[in-house]
Amino acid sequence: MGSKSMKSLLVAVFSLFLLTYSSNVFSQEKAGDNKKQDEKFDPTKAIMNHVQDAYEFHFFSTDHFEAAIYLPVILYSPQKGWSVFSSKRFGPEHNQTYDGYRLEDENTVVPVDPDVTVYDLSLTRNVIQTFLALILFCYLMIKIAQKYKKGEGVVSAPSGAQSFMEPIIVFIREEVAKVNLGSRWQRYMPYLLTVFFFILINALFGLLPGAANVAGNIAFTLVLGVISLIIILASTTTHFWKHIIWPPDVPFLVKVILVPVELFGLFVIKPGALIIRLFANMVAGHIVILAFISLIFIFGAMNTVAGWGFSPFSVVFVVFDYLIEILVAFIQAFIFTALTAIFIGQGFEGSDHDVPHEDHAFV
Amino acid sequence: MQLLLPKLGLILWTLIAFGIVFYILAKYAWKPILKSLDEREKNISDSILSAENMRKEMDNMKSENEALLAKAREERSQMMREAKEIRDKMIQDAKEQARKETNKIVADAQSVINQQKMAAITDLKNQVGNLVLEVSEKVLRRELNNKEDQEKYIQQLAQKVELN
Known about the structure:
heterodimer; A: mainly alpha; two-stranded antiparallel ribbon; 9 helices; about 10% strand; B: mainly alpha
């Protein structure tokens, strides 16, 4: 009985919290509408701007005030050299030109002169948020590690943050590493753990209201996918390559088809599966949340009463989706890690008999 | 489409972040944590093993104790039995002895009585003889002229004889 009322209290608090969040978005969008009088609310544009990277953390704005943290823009052009400036220079409407650069589609810096090429190394909100999340996470993990070093959790039961992290670490060790990597599991543990928590912490931070969608950015997943590919390739054996390039017991004509397929699978499909799955799952959750919130404004544009009337339903759906997103963050981090481990295991499968034979169709 | 195009800056920064985080965590977090977990698991399995050994030892000791106890119990009952036998035998012996003694005493007494009786009878015979002799003497000494007197006298004498 007590836990039930506690649960409903938690739900109530969470909804209230989301209500304030959604009202922030509301004011933000409304302010945008006021400024661009003739422009109607465009949910696609609003959602895409929220899901993508940006040069500032934008919370809300009124007619006279922009609640935003402007981040540094760092550009390198072979013709013009380095230019570093605050993204505030693009103006509150993002339509001003500075130092020969302007902002296109809200999130791409392009040179005004089309002959100039530019490399954009800006500390965007994704970069800043990734760094903050990782600093926090590293601090936490090092503190936990120090606790272990002192013997806490070794000769006694684990306590505090240890109790939360330990089951996850043990789970990855038992269910991911040992199952897929046979006797060589120990070598890959640091990578598997790092990639798991790297995805998890960034996905969870991306769920904070006003935060950037880090894990749902193709650049982020691309980096992880490519690193995984390098590790997969680095752990392959000659036995593996023999089977890929000249599969035994296969007729010649089938070999002609099979070999390109195998090579394509190794270099494109495996990392591609990792990259696109993570990206799509993360971005989809954010789009769903934002779509439900946008519904309020779509109804609001028709009729103010309809907008307010629909908002409770939106909030309920958003809360539901938020909870799913938390689950998805864990699941996707796990899947990425597990698939990486399976692909690595396939690389030395057969050369070493204690590696379990995985189903090749599992991609 | 913008969504699907990775940006160079973000790739670079993510790569740098991942590299640094991997280095830091691998060196300062995962290594000690995994080592500690291994150590703890080893501790636990060792403890379980030693506890199991201890239990086995205890079991052995217990069964040994039980065997010892059973043996002691058996010995005790054996001793009891023996003691009982000895006691019974002693009682039996004593009874036998007593019976023999009694018989002997009774037999002795009977022979003494018989002897006494025989002595008494002999004595009596002698006395009766003596008396007869005395009476005969006295009768013979008187003048046996009178038949009447004789008979009177004999009666008198007979009256005097008191068989005591």
